[in-house]
Amino acid sequence: MATATSAIRVEGVTKRYGVVTALEAVSLEVERGEFLTLLGPSGSGKTTLLRVIAGLERPDEGRVYLGGEDVTDLPPYRRRVHTVFQQYVLFPHLNVYKNVAFGLEQKRLPRREIERRVAAALELVRLSGYERRWPHELSGGEQQRVALARALVLEPEALLLDEPLAALDLQLRKEMQRELKRLQREVGISFLMVTHDQEEALALSDRLAVIAGGRLQQIGTPREVYENPETAFVATFLGSANVFEAEVMARENGDALLALCGRTVRVSLNGRRLEGSRAQVAVRPEKIALRARPLRKTDLVQLEGVIEERLYLGDATHWRVRVGDHSVLVTEPNRPGSRAEAFRDGQRVFLCWARESIVVLSQ
Amino acid sequence: MRASRGSEANRWIWLAPSVLWLVFVLLLPLGFIIAVSFAERGLYGGVHWRFGLENYRRALDPLYFPIYARSFLMAAVTTALCLLIGYPVAYAIALRVNPKWKHALLVLSILPFWTSFLLRTYAWMFLLRAEGFVNTLLLTWGVIERPISWLLYSDFAVVIGQLYGELPFAILPLYVALERVDVRVIEAAMDLGANRWHVFWRVVVPLTRPGIITALVLVFIPSLGAFITPDLLGGAKSAMLGTVIQNQFVQRNPPMGSALSVLLILAVLALLLVAWRAAGVKERQ
Fold first, then answer.
1. Which of the four, A23, A41, A196, A218, has the lowest number of CB atoms within 10 Å?
2. What ipTM score was computed for the predicted complex, to two decimals?
3. In Å, how far is B182's CA from the nearest CA of chain A?
């Protein structure tokens, strides 16, 4: 993680539009060859951060480094990062070949080299033979590939992707997700992708950064962030989570004794600090099992509740179970013989989950 | 297509106004002019209906060539200046100015249309003549010691007058074309390494080509046949196509004037064809 090797480094970047703060003191590093995703709801500032890195917006505070070089004051055309825009934004007056050659022609490279590199880039995105087509003759997926080729052909320090798959329909999106991952492995260039699609973020990223309200919430591998969300926002934005209030009874050796829905549970703090007498904890709905009868002599957390609602979603069933003040979400895959299928609304059930499934959140 | 849309007769009723307009305002006069152009000059300025090619032979006499060339050159200079000035103005209004001022600025740019062209041309005479506003100002400031004589009754004055009259016809189509340019395409070009100069020449100009061609046509064609400005602002020696045609009618030679007019129309049609093809290439893209 040596600084000198990072492809992109953003330090304390703040961007305001009038009274609105789009980004607040955001610091972020993208390693060479890394696929990092910025995940956040719309208006969270993720696209603004991309534009600041591309040079299309000037930050009010903070610096941007590309490959170790401070580029904060450089215009976009002097920065070795290129963007794949959400709506592709191909040049409508240029054919596919000319679109891909555009950046190379700016550099006044010899024609032979331009031809060679355009051909290689089109082959990379599997569009060989499309050279003479016009952008409006291409499907959304093909336009997307041209946009990728147009940026990758310049061998940038990093590729910025602004919701690259948002305009595609579901089937094509899944296909392009795999395609993006393949491309990124093949060219070995850092990808920094913005998305609001959590599944996309989980599937593609080496690391993902959750951003909200212009602030970086958490950054880590998909597994780290999903399994160990730091805040209630991250827990509920990335996947879904049941957030409980608990009372802190005691603390010892990085563990805590919590009173949770009338039970006393020992949980690991996982290095998180717990201040005051109250705590928030999260439990993922798929980590909870539903049972008709309580287990005796068990290490599991068990709570008694009443089924409020059942949503059949094809691959899984989502349950709402009333436990005291909480409406707890439980998801179960629909396997043949799932016991859960038998439960009816209003039925008394028991929720069980392992102590390790409880994540203590920072306030 | 369906029967309920109305019968054949019904359709003709709706078309009637445009057909009548075309026939009486365009086709009949045009046909008349073409007919007259082949006729002979009557003794007292009338038309003697004996047909021949005499007028055209005279019109294509090398004697007239310098006049055609001059008209062409003046129209070309006017058009070039209109684009040179109109493009930055339209660019600023479409892409640079705060959107809430756009409409006010557009109205301002066509404001001169609110008075008659003849009056505005007289106004230019008032400004440019020897004891006019410009000369007086320059004399008072001591920039010159003697009034500049070539300000009025010169090619300079004709170009100024034409430029002034035609500029809105350049600005409007250019504005429409520039307004449609997607700012994100400009950003994409900058992102891919194009500096402002390259963005302008390789992206903005090609994307606004239809507007540029429209502006060219709208300015060049009226300039080619203009007669008020060359007549009022031009010098004694500066005969131009428009003034020559006008003179033929004034000097009671309608057949000759008609023949020159027909030649002008043919030249304009040829130019339109070229412009149309140039724009057509764009459309295929």
1. A41
2. 0.84
3. 9
